[in-house]
Amino acid sequence: MTTDPIDISTHIRDIPDFPSPGIVFKDITPLLGHPVAFRSAIDQLAAPFEDASVTKVLGTEARGFILAAPVADRYGAGFVPVRKAGKLPWEIERQEYELEYGTDLLEIHRDAILPGERVLIVDDVLATGGTAGATARLVEKLGGEVAGFAFLIELAFLPGREQLGDHHITSVITYAGE
Ligand code: AMP
Question: 3 lies in a domain?
């Protein structure tokens, strides 16, 4: 069962200066805790790629897991976790990406995506695009095809979209300014 789209922005809380000064953190926990808003958010994330022949939906630790898994279920697709370094127990592929200060690593199991599979990447927030870009490279290293990106929130005042090249990118809510 799907619900009528609702304005999910009313269920997202701005937390100024978290986790560090100058960052306005988009807290989605009120949305996750509201049954109607949560279901509508999943509907709105999933709708643009319903006919995209997606066989795997990939979520990035940790909030990406919460959104990607129900989207995968809607399509009858598999769910794939991408995790921070050292968390996955089996053979991994890894990708470094740039942070504001320094670099970080994301990892995926080598057998998580088969060559030629169509993969949708889901996350809560598109900010600088570093996380999503590294995730796409992991998919490509395993021979998968990135069908697109579905974000709940896009911070359009940051250059995330430009980082992701020509891929199909959708977001449920776009914030033009902080
Ligand atoms: P980025 O790699 O800069 O696009 O950042 C995306 C990742 O960081 C996502 O996985 C988000 O969960 C998190 N993130 C970045 N900015 C914010 C923000 N303002 N509020 C909440 N989460 C954020």
Answer: no
